[in-house]
């Protein structure tokens, strides 16, 4: 069963075509894992009694709008609509990629989904629960169920903290287990992201970019979240390391039944990881649907244009089964 994110926009928008054209060829595609699911998530403790008919869409945004007040060239106050009436859903256990050029509003949507930023209007639902209605304990619990992974793992990992402390921190903040239990959990998390346990005693500055991003993923997994919002999480990595991290993310998704909202400007990455794609331009959705449809069934003239523009690479892009 495959129900794409809903959108009222026309398919095959020229803007999406431009983005596809800019995508490099693909070296690999998503690797399926045979591991069984069944891990209890923090979300089960949060709102299971509130689940409504929309529960298939673990995250849903409706008519989401964000207007910033900015200063004009002459210092005058102006408004900027960064996100304009955006609606889409993210199906449980799948990956929805939010794509678009720089400044199209992707991170602003991500920050509203994570409740790091309040919408000007519109609603974010998690398991059918309107986030704006949550406060106190319920909001604190929500923080466990939705975790971010950002682009720059060096920037987001405190260089003064050992890797143990970095990964342990969310467990401490949420008062999960005693010191021994937390140590065991950090060791388990390092196993999950395929880092040696000896890394615990190292510092972020001693690790490679790929290793640091594995640490960031381990930290995001610490509280057994249901949803991970990845904002340009592999953009700073070279292509080979990128492929390794994408493979790890796909395996973790299968093992832990994770739901990903994956923000990127890179359609080659989208093709490797996404089930559904939402394309944004100037704060609005211009196209949305299943990844296979967005990539594999372009209009004939579009295919021709693409093949002409990027010989070889484009053929490979569309011949991936
Ligand atoms: N706090 C803020 N105050 C004012 N304007 C902002 C703020 N945050 C974002 N913007 C503006 O909103 C628009 C959308 O930014 P956003 O970061 O969401 O885009 P993006 O698609 O994620 O691009 P990028 O990948 O470059 O971050 C941009 O014009 C940006 O300058």
From TrEMBL:
InterPro entries: AAA+_ATPase (IPR003593), ABC_transp_ATP-bind (IPR050319), ABC_transporter-like_ATP-bd (IPR003439), ABC_transporter-like_CS (IPR017871), Oligopep_ABC_C (IPR013563), P-loop_NTPase (IPR027417). Its EC number is 3.6.3.-. Residues 59-307 form the ABC transporter domain. GO terms for molecular function: ATP binding; ATP hydrolysis activity. Keywords: ATP-binding, Hydrolase, Nucleotide-binding, Transport. GO terms for biological process: peptide transport; transmembrane transport. Signal peptide: none annotated. CDD domains: ABC_NikE_OppD_transporters. SMART domains: AAA (SM00382). Belongs to the ABC transporter superfamily. PANTHER family: D,D-DIPEPTIDE TRANSPORT ATP-BINDING PROTEIN DDPF-RELATED, TRANSPORT ATP-BINDING PROTEIN. This is Glutathione import ATP-binding protein GsiA.
């Amino acid at each position: 069963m495959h129900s794409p994110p809903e959108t009222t926009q026309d398919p095959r928008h020229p803007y999406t075509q431009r983005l596809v054209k800019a995508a490099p060829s693909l070296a690999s595609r998503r690797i399926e894992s045979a591991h069984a699911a069944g891990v209890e998530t923090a979300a089960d403790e949060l709102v299971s009694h509130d689940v409504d008919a929309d529960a298939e869409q673990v995250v849903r945004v409706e008519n989401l709008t964000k207007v910033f007040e900015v200063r004009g060239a002459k210092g005058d106050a102006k408004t900027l609509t960064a996100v304009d009436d955006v609606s889409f859903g993210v199906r449980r256990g799948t990956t929805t990629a939010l794509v678009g050029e720089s400044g199209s509003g992707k991170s602003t949507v991500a920050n509203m989904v994570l409740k790091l930023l309040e919408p000007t209007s519109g609603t974010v639902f998690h398991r059918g629960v309107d986030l704006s209605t949550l406060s106190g304990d319920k909001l604190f619990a929500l923080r466990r169920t939705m975790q971010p992974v950002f682009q720059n793992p060096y920037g987001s990992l405190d260089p003064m903290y050992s890797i143990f402390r970095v990964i342990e921190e969310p467990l401490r903040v949420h008062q999960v287990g005693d010191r021994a239990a937390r140590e065991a959990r950090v060791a388990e998390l390092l196993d999950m992201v395929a880092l040696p346990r000896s890394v615990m005693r190292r510092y972020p500055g001693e690790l490679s970019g790929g290793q640091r991003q594995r640490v960031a993923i381990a930290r995001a997994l610490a509280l057994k979240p249901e949803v991970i919002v990845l904002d340009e999480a592999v953009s700073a990595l070279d292509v080979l390391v990128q492929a390794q991290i994408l493979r790890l993310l796909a395996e973790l998704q299968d093992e832990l039944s994770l739901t990903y909202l994956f923000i990127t400007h890179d359609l080659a990455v989208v093709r490797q990881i996404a089930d559904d794609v939402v394309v944004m331009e100037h704060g609005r959705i211009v196209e949305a649907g299943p990844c296979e449809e967005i990539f594999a069934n372009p209009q004939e003239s579009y295919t021709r244009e693409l093949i002409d523009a990027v010989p070889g690479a484009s053929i490979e892009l569309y011949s991936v089964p």
